[in-house]
Structures are given as structure tokens and as C-alpha cells.
Amino acid sequence: MFRFIVLTSLAALVLAELEPQPRYLEENAQERVVGGEVAKPNSWPWQISLQYQSGSSFSHTCGGSLIRRGWVMTAAHCVDTSRTWRVVLGDHNINSNEGREQYKSVSRVYIHPNWNRNNVAGGWDIALLRLSSDATLNTYVQLAQLPPSDQILPNNNNCYITGWGRTQTGGQLSALLKQAYLPTVDYQTCSSSGWWGSTVKTSMVCAGGGSNSGCQGDSGGPLNCSVNGQWVVHGVTSFVSSSGCNAYRKPTVFTRVSAYISWMNSVSI
């Protein structure tokens, strides 16, 4: 599910226009999420469900990507509270056990040291989870391919966001993994007046922003982009506009993975 946290205004009035206000994409939101379709089961085999313990059961809260057999990449704001976490790999229907899932407890959480939960637009919204044991790679569970350090995608690159988000305002959580087409928006455009302005930093990736674009997926989940015939995880879902997930010229904003390759390598060696 999604839970949107409304943040305080990030900038002063500029020509009587407020800077866009970001919201996290986490659990329990009743927010407008449009577009998308049910993914073919296990067609994004690096996608994981991040769940937290509530009583004797676990509840889905965010997405993530398996980047090494014992490591998952997600958003910092998903895991900056003290909870008992687990990761579910190979999942498609989060409401049932289909026999393909692997359940892993999280032994340690590594949040980027520069992350500030009170300033999502400051960037650094990335974390790594150390699994209690390595994942078994098979047809249903595979490692995400990450981009080379500092690679920037061109405008309008083909990408998909994936997750278990709601499909309409006040609607039900999608039990089945969904995907939505979100082409990239280059930084020059996304940071311009009338778009996200100075809220967006060069360490982020924008995708979507048109009237038909969706925002299908949880915080922490991947932005899967087609590069040279391969799917590469270029983004970690971070925030959207407080005016709606598919707000015109307010694309979904992702942590740019290629800006954090060296940090991830230093943590997960």
C-alpha cells in the first residue's frame, strides 16, 4: 500500500507560485494512482516486497530490488524507523503463497549517511538491506542489473515502474504485481519552472509527468529502464507531487542509482 507523508513547503514563494511539495510513496495511501497493468508473473524477478512485523504477521510497506544474493536496495525513508523487517523474493500475489517465494529476515539496515528524513528533496533517499541468508537464484529470483557509475539516461528513455500500489483513488491494494510505463524526463526539463524546479537534484531521475502517466509502485521499488536491449534499474522510487501521482509536469521522482554505485560497493563488499 501507499502512505503519503505530507512535508512542509520546501521553498519560498517564487513569483507567487509555491515550489511543488513532495510526498513519499509508502504504505496505506488513498491516493490517485493511474495507468499500469498486471505484470506477467515473475517478469521482474529482482522486485521484492519489503514487509514489517505487526503482531504475529507481516505487512507489505515498500518495494526494493535484489542487487546481490544477500543484498537489497530500497529507499531510505522506507526503513528509517525501528521495525522488524523481512524481504519476500519471487513474489507475484502478495496475498497468497504460490510456492515460488523466498522469505528472508533482514540482519542489518544501511541508510545513506547523508539522508535527512525531514528533507526528502535533499536527496540521498537510498538504503541497503543485508539479508540473513543469501537468496537462491532461479527462474523467479534474479539479480537486478545496475547502471555504470554516473550514467545519465536521455530524455524519453523507455522505463517501467513496478509495484503493488493502488489502481484508483480509495481503491484496493493490488494483490498482483503491476507495471506502468514511465518514460524519463531529463534533468534540464524536470528542474525547469513549471515542472519540479529546484526540488529536483542532479542525483535524481524524473519519469512520467504527462496526463496519461501512471505512478504504479511502492517507494523503494525499481525504475526499470531499457538500455541496449537489457533492463537496468536506474531509479529507486522516492516521491511524487502532493497534488497527485500523475500530476501534469510533476513526474515521479526517483533516487538516481548511478549516483550511488560507489557507496553501494563500499557497503556491500
UniProtKB/TrEMBL annotation:
A molecular-function term among this protein's GO annotations: metal ion binding
Record keywords, A-Z: Calcium, Disulfide bond, Hydrolase, Metal-binding, Protease, Secreted, Serine protease, Signal
Keyword Lipid biosynthesis carried by entry: no
Subcellular location(s) per record: Secreted
PROSITE patterns: TRYPSIN_DOM (PS50240), TRYPSIN_HIS (PS00134), TRYPSIN_SER (PS00135)
Coiled coil: none
SUPFAM superfamilies, per database record: Trypsin-like serine proteases (SSF50494)
Any one cellular-component term (Gene Ontology): extracellular space
UniProt xrefs under Gene3D superfamilies: Trypsin-like serine proteases (2.40.10.10)
Domain Peptidase S1: 33-269
Signal peptide boundaries: 1-16
Glycoprotein as UniProt keyword: no
Cofactors, names only: Ca(2+)
EC numbers for this chain: 3.4.21.36
Main location: secreted
An annotated GO BP: proteolysis
Pfam families: Trypsin
Catalytic activity reported: Hydrolysis of proteins, including elastin. Preferential cleavage: Ala-|-Xaa
Name of the protein this chain belongs to: pancreatic elastase
Source organism of the structure: Mastacembelus armatus
